[in-house]
Specification:
Elements: E1 8-13, H1 22-36, E2 40-44, H2 50-63, E3 70-74, H3 80-83, E4 87-90, H4 97-104, E5 109-115, E6 130-133, H5 150-161, E7 167-170, H6 175-184, E8 188-191, H7 193-196, H8 201-212
Parallel strand pairs: 1-2, 1-8, 2-3, 3-4, 4-5, 5-6, 6-7, 7-8
Length: 213
């Protein structure tokens, strides 16, 4: 896969979306994020129906040019084709990475959870383009029982994974800790609340990219 992962990988959780005017909100948000330079975005909706997720996903796709921004759908590999998305992130309880690859083909981006304290057994052999690791710090955006691994955990997992694996660090990361996590070996930093709970997510993303270079 020739795609180059950006330093910041925003995860848009459906919990921030308004109850009314949802499509217009997503279209405006998607346009502003694309203009801000977002090249990779994940949409996560754990509770919505397939039809709701599909409507949301299509609104984002229409707002964010395919040649400029890769869009990842959380969990629902069977909706990727119909939404025009570029890939899927699957975890335990979802479709297995191998099954997702068979369904979506070689060109789509496949991501999955790679581990916390240590890489999961067999993680490096999975047909995945990136492995998420963490949580690095405590997080309220996604429920998890895993103990935060801190910056040293990122460094340990990078050493275990080697240099050719894309690692996406996730969980409680803010701009004050981002540079250190990248220096510890993360390929990209997956960020949700630190960007999307701000008044202007696009401006916040630009600020992150300016600071991180």
């Amino acid at each position: 896969m020739s795609f180059v992962f950006p330093k910041v990988y925003p995860i848009l959780d459906s919990s921030i979306l308004p109850l009314s005017g949802r499509e217009d909100f997503l279209h405006q948000l998607g346009q502003s994020l694309a203009s801000a330079g977002v090249t990779l975005l994940e949409y996560r909706n754990k509770m919505g129906s397939d039809s709701e997720v599909l409507v949301d996903a299509r609104a984002l796709r229409n707002a964010m040019p395919k040649l400029k921004t890769k869009l990842i759908l959380d969990d629902r590999a069977h909706l990727v084709e119909g939404s025009g998305f570029d890939g899927v992130h699957v975890d335990a309880g979802d479709l297995a990475p191998g099954e997702a690859r068979n369904l979506l083909g070689p060109e789509r981006i496949i991501g999955t959870f790679g581990g916390s304290e240590a890489l999961l057994a067999g993680a490096l052999a999975l047909p995945a383009d990136y492995l998420s690791i963490g949580p690095v710090f405590p997080t309220t955006t996604k429920q998890t029982s895993k103990t935060p691994i801190g910056v040293e955990g990122v460094r340990r997992l990078r050493k275990q994974a080697g240099n050719k694996v894309n690692l996406a660090a996730v969980g409680g990361i803010d701009l004050a800790t981002a540079s250190e996590i990248l220096a510890a070996g993360a390929t990209t930093i997956a960020v949700s609340a630190a960007i999307f709970r701000r008044p202007d997510p696009a401006a916040e993303f630009q600020h992150w990219m300016d600071v991180l270079g």
